[in-house]
Write a structure and sequence with these properties.
This is NADH-quinone oxidoreductase subunit J. It is a multi-pass membrane protein. InterPro entries: NADH_UbQ/plastoQ_OxRdtase_su6, Nuo/plastoQ_OxRdtase_6_NuoJ. By secondary structure, this protein is mainly α. The protein folds into two domains: about 80 residues, Four Helix Bundle (Hemerythrin (Met), subunit A) (Up-down Bundle); about 40 residues. It is built from seven helices and no strands. Helix 1 packs antiparallel against helix 2 and helix 2 packs antiparallel against helix 3. The protein starts with a helix and ends with a helix.
Length: about 170
């Protein structure tokens, strides 16, 4: 059996388990730590795909900077453990049913997709995943979404500070 296939299976299962812990954890801190582990397992999958630059950026940007921001906001807002979950309500049942419906749509869509990988020429393979190619893509095709996300993060930080300051 191929070692890459085994590693992919391990990383995929651990990514799904840690992502499930993000959703089911009662404490926001435990949820954030599970999200960090999800980011690391995703970085492992990127390494298996020979996208080392994306893997390093995944760890540095998401597991590093973004999670520090999340933990700062969680601690600033002084969020404790979630209260005990009550009885199922109509909105919870509808939310669960719609989530299952979206999962079914995703499974049907993925089963109909042609699974042939894209073929790159030698020049495309040499430039794939390099910092120059990523920078060219971010600052040309994705400049507006990139700037919108940075503005959104700035607004989130300012909002967290305002909310925390109003409690004092």
């Amino acid at each position: 059996m191929n070692i890459e296939l085994v590693l992919f299976g391990v990383f995929a299962v651990m990514t799904l388990v840690s992502a499930g812990l993000v959703i089911t954890a009662r404490s926001p801190i435990n949820s954030a730590m599970a999200l960090v582990s999800t980011f690391f397992f995703l970085a492992g999958i990127y390494v298996l795909l020979w996208a080392h630059t994306v893997a390093v950026m995944q760890v540095l940007v998401y597991a590093g900077a973004i999670m520090v921001l999340f933990l700062f906001v969680i601690m600033l807002l002084n969020l404790g453990d979630a209260p005990h979950r009550g009885k199922p309500t109509v909105t919870r049942l509808l939310g669960g049913a719609s989530a299952l419906g979206l999962l079914a749509v995703l499974v049907v869509t993925l089963s109909r997709v042609n699974a042939q990988p894209a073929q790159l020429d030698a020049k495309g393979q040499a430039a794939f995943g390099t910092m120059a190619a990523i920078g060219q893509s971010i600052f040309t095709s994705w400049l507006l979404p990139f700037e919108a996300v940075s503005l959104l993060l700035l607004v989130a930080m300012v909002g967290a500070v305002v909310v925390a300051k109003s409690r004092i």
